Amino acid sequence: MAKNTSSSAFRKIDIDQYNEDNFKEDETESSGPTGPDEGEICALLNQGRYIEALKLVLGNAPVGSTNQQVKDNALAITLKVLLAIKSAQIEEAVGNLSLDDIDILMKYIYRGFEYPSEGSSGHLLLWHEKAFNVGGSGSIVRVLSDRMRV
């Protein structure tokens, strides 16, 4: 004989709260990181510590942020760092990054291609070449399939 399953006492969580119509995103928790500190980045650039500035900017990337202004500010700071590093130093800089940082770097490179400025596209292509040499095609696939944009 079958048991009566019309009772909802066995449920430990309310699954209806996850329905798209009922879901409310909490703005304070979902805003994510605020991005890199521009003053600290500029200080590192002025001291010639480009690799440290690059690591800092990639480590504080607002990947999970929903605030577009934060993402745009982080892009501007990151492009400033990428364009400040000379072509001869790019390979050394990429060699000091982790694979996760290279994926984030690729995201910024592709975002930089969306907003070209004078001379930036050629420099970003050099960055792309060096990052591809380290990260391989897997890095490109992860960036293009990732839904979290920077």
Automatic annotation (TrEMBL):
GO biological process, one term: regulation of actin filament polymerization
Pfam families found in the cross-reference section: P16-Arc
A Gene Ontology cellular-component term: Arp2/3 protein complex
Subcellular location: Cytoplasm, Cytoskeleton
InterPro entries for this protein: ARPC5 (IPR006789), ARPC5_sf (IPR036743)
Record region (Disordered): 1-39
UniProtKB keywords: Cytoplasm, Cytoskeleton
Biased composition (Acidic residues): 17-29
Presence of keyword Cytoplasm: yes
Organism superkingdom: Eukaryota
Primary role: Functions as component of the Arp2/3 complex which is involved in regulation of actin polymerization and together with an activating nucleation-promoting factor (NPF) mediates the formation of branched actin networks. Arp2/3 complex plays a critical role in the control of cell morphogenesis via the modulation of cell polarity development.
Protein family according to the UniProt entry: Belongs to the ARPC5 family.
Protein name according to UniProt: Actin-related protein 2/3 complex subunit 5
Organism: Papilio xuthus
